[in-house]
Design a protein that fits this description.
By secondary structure, this protein is of the alpha+beta class. It contains 11 helices and 10 strands. It has helices spanning 2-15, 21-31, 37-46, 50-90, 107-120, 135-138, 174-183, 224-239, 292-297, 314-322, 335-338, and strands at 125-126, 132-134, 158-160, 167-169, 188-197, 209-219, 245-252, 255-264, 281-290, 306-313. Helix 1 runs parallel beside helix 4 (50-90), helix 2 runs antiparallel to helix 4 and helix 3 runs antiparallel to helix 4 (50-90). The longest helix has 41 residues, at 50-90.
């Protein structure tokens, strides 16, 4: 009989306990959903006699209220715990906020900025150009002969190979010098920082991309003595007073005469170590007087004007400044490595 069922389910409801939120959901699904026990008893109530309805109507409504009240009681502790957990996660909103942890500049960015600032004080401006270059600006205008090995696939990343004008990722920022000389008139005094690309195997000492800063000064009566004094001042500013400098004869297609510049090893102070291969000297840049052919290629009268150029790898300079022995660290974004430079914010 319906009345017996109500009595049975009432006892079950009163004795029901919930150890977890899943038990509360099980109670709801059993008693309160559209196909649950409460709804089923009301459907059964419709077929009762009129006399039974007068007796059972009040009992059935009280049973429904009991089930709903029991569900609310079972649910309350878990809702309170959830609210407390959420508040604990969010924290006390009335407390002062936590400050943001400052990041740090990349060591290459730090050294590049320092180099730029040193040359700015000497009157050099910063000039930039595209990283994808044509053959003229990357090679031909700079006096590279057609058979030069730098044009080979082993050294250059070609984007598009054409019969007369190949398109490639620039192998040096000297291409920016060409563009500057083509578009303007002397005097020029500028540095060209930027990323360059070489088709080389990646190792602790080499990478397929790196960063350069090149410089150019073109005016009347510019001499090799001007070049030496400019670079000597740069070294003293970057590495400190007393750093020794020496120039060795070298060869570059776009400068004549050409030289490589060494400084006394910043690690062993010239006494000899693994970094300088026990020589006490470390090469940091190449330089020379701008070849007259390069000036003429860019529409500048080489009989009236002369100039000097230099170029250095920022990675090499950074290695000496911070004693970093593996080039791969610069591009791996290892937080343990980068966090060492938090005190170097400038």
């Amino acid at each position: 009989m319906l009345q017996d069922k109500i009595k049975q389910y009432t006892e079950e409801i009163n004795q029901f306990q919930a150890a977890a939120l899943a038990d509360v959901e099980a109670f709801r699904l059993k008693f309160l959903v559209s196909k649950g026990i409460v709804k089923g008893l009301f459907e059964e109530f419709k077929s009762a006699s009129a006399e039974d309805k007068r007796v059972l109507g009040k009992v059935l409504n009280e049973f429904k209220q009991l089930a709903e009240q029991k569900f609310a009681e079972l649910q309350a502790p878990f809702e309170s715990a959830s609210a407390n957990q959420k508040q604990a996660q969010e924290g006390d909103l009335t407390l002062p906020g936590n400050g943001f942890q400052l990041g740090s500049r990349h060591p290459l960015s730090l050294v590049r900025k320092e180099i730029v600032e040193i040359f700015k004080k000497l009157g050099f401006v910063v000039s930039e150009g595209p990283e994808i270059e044509d053959d003229w600006h990357n090679f031909s205008a700079l006096n590279f002969p057609p058979e030069h090995p730098a044009r080979d696939m082993q050294d250059t990343f070609f984007v598009e190979k054409k019969d007369e004008n190949n398109i490639a990722l620039r192998t040096h920022t000297s291409s920016v010098q060409v563009r500057m000389m083509e578009m303007g008139k002397p005097p020029f005094r500028a540095i060209m920082p930027g990323r360059v690309y070489r088709n080389e195997a990646i190792s602790a000492r080499a990478h397929c991309f790196f960063h350069q800063v090149e410089g150019l000064y073109v005016d009347e009566n510019v001499s090799f003595a001007d070049l030496k004094q400019t670079l000597y001042h740069f070294v003293q500013e970057l590495y400190g007073e007393g750093t020794k400098v020496r120039f060795r004869p070298s060869y570059f297609p776009f400068t004549e005469p050409s030289a490589e510049m060494d400084i006394s090893c910043t690690i062993c102070k010239g006494e000899g170590c693994q970094l300088c291969k026990q020589s006490g000297w470390v090469e940091i840049l190449g330089c020379g007087m701008v070849d007259p052919n390069v000036l003429e290629n860019c529409g500048i009268d080489s009989k009236k004007y002369s100039g000097f150029a230099f170029g250095m790898g920022i990675e090499r300079v950074t290695n000496l400044k911070y004693v970093i022995r593996d080039l791969r660290l610069f591009s791996e974004n290892d937080v343990r490595f980068l966090s060492q430079f938090e005190t170097e914010l400038i």
